[in-house]
## 1
Amino acid sequence: MSRPRPLVPRPDPADTVGVVGEFGVISRVTARAGTARLAEVGPGDDAAVLRTPDGRVVACTDVLVEGRHFRRDWSSAEDVGHKAAAANLADVAAMGAVPTALLVGLACPADTPAAWLEGVAAGMAAECAPFGAAVVGGDTVASAADSGAVVLSVTALGDLGGRAPVTRGGARPGDVVAVVGRLGWSACGLAVLRRGFTSPAAAVAAHRRPTPPYADGPAAADAGATAMCDVSDGLLADVGHLAADSGVRIDLRRAALTGTFITGPLPQVAAALGGDPLAWVLTGGEDHALVATFPPGAELPEGWTMIGDVHDGEPGVRVDEVPARQVAAELGEATGHAHFR
Amino acid sequence: MSRPRPLVPRPDPADTVGVVGEFGVISRVTARAGTARLAEVGPGDDAAVLRTPDGRVVACTDVLVEGRHFRRDWSSAEDVGHKAAAANLADVAAMGAVPTALLVGLACPADTPAAWLEGVAAGMAAECAPFGAAVVGGDTVASAADSGAVVLSVTALGDLGGRAPVTRGGARPGDVVAVVGRLGWSACGLAVLRRGFTSPAAAVAAHRRPTPPYADGPAAADAGATAMCDVSDGLLADVGHLAADSGVRIDLRRAALTGTFITGPLPQVAAALGGDPLAWVLTGGEDHALVATFPPGAELPEGWTMIGDVHDGEPGVRVDEVPARQVAAELGEATGHAHFR
């Protein structure tokens, strides 16, 4: 494990939001916004206009607060842009839809470097580009004070392409539960950064720029998924949302989780730091894996791993018959990932 | 003019975002969200799904920061909700569209009263309800620190109902310029509040809860408006946006403005405070009037007042041949309303 190099170049004191002004920043940020394939009117007007081929639009909003979801000394501006976009694009994928556009509301201290905001915009545009999506609108406001945290509120729009939306409430007794994507890598990377290290690179990169399995959301919808969400708060917490909204009990199997998901940097970092990698897998958020339920006997789409099944009963989650809360407590974790707190 | 009563009831220290938790607040706020007529999936899932009858969706985002756009001692929670919604719904109207839904990203200190956030949600829902629109999604995050400003990032969606979107860039030489709605009332109300008064009620109410002429946006589009925007930064600044984006010079007539818009509480308050009401009319923002250009000879829809015309020439705005910047300087104002700064 190696010690970090600084991620924050010395800012130009004449190039802050306060000096350049909001309109100046907005025009520079807009220049980095990319181009949305479906935009009829893009950024710069009162509102954007986007074609909706499906006849419906999928829309969600996620807020990232500096010091809570990212730190400017641990993540570059581009990293923050990638991460903020990913958190929202994954929500679109978890409905079975494909992202089409982002809108970004940003509040920041007046001394925030304009170049940092350009970096955030570039990161968002890069995360959107594979879908032909882009930032089509937004607003930047300097807070009254110089101090304070940067707040990024991102809204993502998406298109269902004729699919029925896959909600959290459709799981039925007899369904199987499956996951695609990484679990615990971001939490592992955070543990590394917290100790002052920047390697293994795979763990740190996973924390800085999650790589949600976007295409697997629509694929799961096509395969008949009955319920789905992304893992942003931690597997136990998010499976708990499926159980609560569907009114079912979900039983997970520890062996299925340890066998498939304790991989990549997790064993090495857990050994070096003296932790249990299963804690990251069960409670680590922000990798934005997808967890879904499928009807009994359905063939799981490629890449998905079966981790449990759905039962009649008191809504909740168990791991090998042990309630989720007790499992998390034994691992020394809350069930839900609380970001940096 | 009367002295204010306190707008902030003593908060229950056991009922803050930090104590109740984000999920607790979100469920209480969601209960106030209203119901969107076009929502197929409403709040509470990864994303909302909204029908888009037009085949396109209009989308915009506006950020309000405490201390900059509102003060909790000058505006009730419901006022802040109304105002945040209005700022965005007016942008939708200014494209010629009808609002269909809001999404709200909220960052606040952990000691923010949960009841205050419920009030904001109720205000937003009330502002949306006449359209059959509602809050369909969002996210609430407590900042790491107890201190700091509340940040509200609101995204509005809208439907064009078959109309072509009216951008800021379509004004042509020969067009006439017209306004519908109030100018300067919010700035007048702010001047009243700043002096510690709470009357005249009409001025203070206009600052707390603007009443944009929403229906006049689609009506202007139907009447052939060539360019349109809402007046959120002040008339001179926003007409300046039309001029810049259309590449035209816009000439306004002072007599048309003073004759029609120095009305309601403006003359009385200006006299009492010793100011020029024309300054509020030309540079006051946040009333969200609509300003549009119409082809020569077009019949203006009901309620619109002609205030000038469009010319070939260096893009910019003049009032009776005097450049906007000079007019504003003579009135002791910047061309653009800078909110509380």
Note: Residues 128 and 335 of chain B are 31 Å apart (CA to CA).
## 2
Amino acid sequence: MSATILPLETPAAIIDVARMQRNILRMQERMDALGVQLRPHVKSSKCLPVIQAQMAAGASGVTVSTLKEAQHCFDAGITEVMYAVAMVPGKLALALNLRRQGCCLSIITDSVVGAQLIVAFGRQHAESFDVWIEVDSDGHRSGLKVDDCALLEVAQVLCGGGMQLAGVMTHAGSSYELNDLAALQAIAEQERAICVAAAEKIRAAGLPCPRVSVGSTPTALSALSLEGVTEVRAGVYVFFDLVMHNVGVCRPEELALSVLTTVIGHQVEKGWVITDSGWMAMSRDRGTQRQRRDFAFGQVCTEAGAWIEGGLLGSVNQEHGIVTFEDGQDLDLVNRFPIGSRLRILPNHACATGAQFPHYHACEGSGEVHLWSRLHGW
Amino acid sequence: MSATILPLETPAAIIDVARMQRNILRMQERMDALGVQLRPHVKSSKCLPVIQAQMAAGASGVTVSTLKEAQHCFDAGITEVMYAVAMVPGKLALALNLRRQGCCLSIITDSVVGAQLIVAFGRQHAESFDVWIEVDSDGHRSGLKVDDCALLEVAQVLCGGGMQLAGVMTHAGSSYELNDLAALQAIAEQERAICVAAAEKIRAAGLPCPRVSVGSTPTALSALSLEGVTEVRAGVYVFFDLVMHNVGVCRPEELALSVLTTVIGHQVEKGWVITDSGWMAMSRDRGTQRQRRDFAFGQVCTEAGAWIEGGLLGSVNQEHGIVTFEDGQDLDLVNRFPIGSRLRILPNHACATGAQFPHYHACEGSGEVHLWSRLHGW
């Protein structure tokens, strides 16, 4: 990042494009070396130029969290799309519409009822949906346990009902709670092994299960082997953030998203510098609260991006952010951080902070700044 | 709210228009009875039909948290606008532009430096800005203490520099932390008394201080007297939410904003119902965490809006919400809340939840549903 950022109104969400490109390359090279495809989860950026940079680096397709993202990617020429939230009847018409446009949209389910609903709709509309079965590899959220007899039943319902069984997929979201390399390697191996075992169980029953999809940023960056896996999904690696920093999968100089903010006042006797980066800019995400280092609502940096040690965005109102300092009262705050001067705040969670903004300001090393719009809503 | 809501994709932010209208009327009638003007803070809705309903009920103008809101209101014919975040040089050009268009935009400051910067810009552009001095009535955030000698100095800088001193304003944000009527009445009186004292101090020095503006939803609804006050600012009362419910200023049947969500799965052995209302829909706001009743990420209701006692949105991922029940495991969850069925979630903080959506679905008692867009960004 160049030392001087062009004048921008604040608060603004700044992407350091050079860092982002390095992050994309790092993940793509790792996946290439492990012999698997990378299908980035675009929920992190929801921004076409970012997604296009991931595709240009070698991604095989995208993962989306909403059908709006799917449509957006498809409109830009990306056809290989997985909608990675369990499908429900109310969303099947949109999914069908995307497929009828030519999008190779795959969907997921983790229950017999869910599979039956997809089959019923598919038959009604003469559509053979590509369906993944979601597997629970860590008890974190959704998915079928590998030893649940429903796993085979779902596969049978889908195949018997004329759907295409795309494969099995899982997400070891509990990896976000770790911060130790050995533990990360272990959860990555658990994610891989359980998902591969689910695929093998289905294949052993004589059903097709061509693909095995796993992933989260921490496991993708920690896995020692991805044997049996065909593709990895990961999202936040494109920007990284303080949560990932605490997990231990990125260095400070890899954080590619920050919020540019203006100093709007002080409460000197309290040691507060007040900024225009409230929760409307940062989000209310407190992802580092229970991690090894609590960054409150964000790490304070100079406008050029250098960490101000001990400077945290301590609390937030809607449009007010209160910067506090570890060493408490500092009578020179008014001069060090005068009204109108600017700071940058590194967010806990890049996905949540990005979502507060209609667009990013993407800053090139050359000093050039692009306005990149991002999706909002469903 | 009618028992059946028209088919909508989920998640969707639902406004119960009848409740909203009653909330607007309740606050307006209270302010009328207390003899003060009401200047609603539109940061809560950022939505023109909501703001227009407030104006139609008798509001004297609006309070905004961004200049984008100011422009939006002005474009709709609302000329009396207070931008209630301390002004900085980088935003003065936008403020000037609004005033040159004919908007009666007033701005605020809480420091001598801030006042000097406004004066310098105003003189440079031959503009006499209307400026409020922000007073700190509870140590919560910004503002000058009434006994700070800078209070008079700021007034002198503004008046001496050719600006119009609009008056003094304060916001007793600490009222959100209370839940007892006597304590709420006390903080309301403190907010009033301190702000009036600041005005009197300025007037005693021979300077004009025509207006006294106070407010927050809890203090506005608790004040016994507003003597000396000319106007009240309040925002979230238009929808109310679980935080305000815990503060004790609204009843459950006054909560006018909810998130409609679809059941997408279950983890039966854990007693979980999984929905499509993750943090992207609810926000990460945990405003009830330290209140007398912790609603986690929201209170679960039936689709028609009836509270399901003990049902909470216990945790959230980006697009997944996990509903948990106080009584723990319930083997009938799959039948009680089948895949594809719908629930409604009442949010902790209406301002934060609304901000996650590009539009509201405004439901009339007749069953009619309007799509009301809301502002996003700065």
Note: Chain A has two domains: 17-238, 252-373.
